[in-house]
């Protein structure tokens, strides 16, 4: 039996992005201890990692789609797993933004591939393109977390990143919700 879990994967992406935005806004507001985020972050990270891994290596979609959807979620899951452990231990997680840059470069390549190889069409194209492009920009810009939140430029950068992650969460939730409705309308 074929089970399409892409919709719940998009829900997890939305929740993961919202947690990242929460972390960024909390940092701007001077919150120092984020250990309370670690358990929920760990569960989301584990789901992102496992579902991304499953999709990348075993999901029966044509190869490009497994790479397009599964690979970035797998890599995000790895980053969030490390982040939740580091938050739990009280470590500074800014170093993970460097891994975000690599994820962003990969997402830029996927955004290009989506257009060049016509992998998304019709009404699905614009939200998917927006999700990938905004995710790529946010990931590549993630080292802005090294700016001092006490400076105007630092606060602006953190808010800009938070807004991008909130938009990513809404787009992922929109695509996932549309997918749920489509799946419910025509069950297998």
UniProtKB/TrEMBL annotation:
Q: What InterPro entries does the record point to? A: DUF981 (IPR009324)
Which residues are in coiled coils? Answer: none
Pfam families, sorted = DUF981
Give UniProt keywords alphabetically.
Membrane, Transmembrane, Transmembrane helix
Membrane found in the keyword field: yes
Write down the species: Candidatus Micrarchaeum acidiphilum ARMAN-2
* Keyword RNA-binding listed: no
Q: What is this protein called?
A: DUF981 family protein
Q: Which residues cross the membrane?
A: 6-25, 37-59, 65-88, 95-117, 129-147, 159-185
């Amino acid at each position: 039996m074929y089970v399409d879990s892409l919709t719940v994967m998009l829900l997890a992406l939305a929740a993961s992005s919202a947690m990242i935005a929460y972390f960024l806004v909390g940092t701007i507001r001077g919150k120092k201890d984020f250990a309370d985020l670690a358990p929920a972050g760990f569960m989301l990270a584990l789901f992102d990692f496992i579902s991304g891994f499953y999709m990348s290596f075993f999901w029966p979609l044509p190869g490009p789609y497994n790479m397009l959807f599964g690979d970035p979620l797998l890599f995000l899951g790895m980053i969030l797993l490390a982040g939740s452990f580091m938050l739990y231990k009280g470590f500074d997680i800014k170093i993970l933004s460097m891994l975000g840059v690599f994820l962003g470069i990969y997402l830029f390549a996927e955004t290009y591939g989506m257009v060049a190889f016509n992998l998304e069409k019709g009404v699905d194209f614009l939200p998917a393109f927006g999700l990938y492009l905004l995710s790529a920009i946010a990931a590549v810009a993630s080292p802005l977390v090294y700016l001092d939140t006490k400076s105007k430029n630092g606060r602006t950068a953190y808010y800009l990143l938070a807004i991008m992650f909130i938009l990513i969460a809404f787009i992922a939730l929109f695509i996932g919700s549309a997918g749920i409705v489509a799946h419910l309308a025509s069950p297998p």
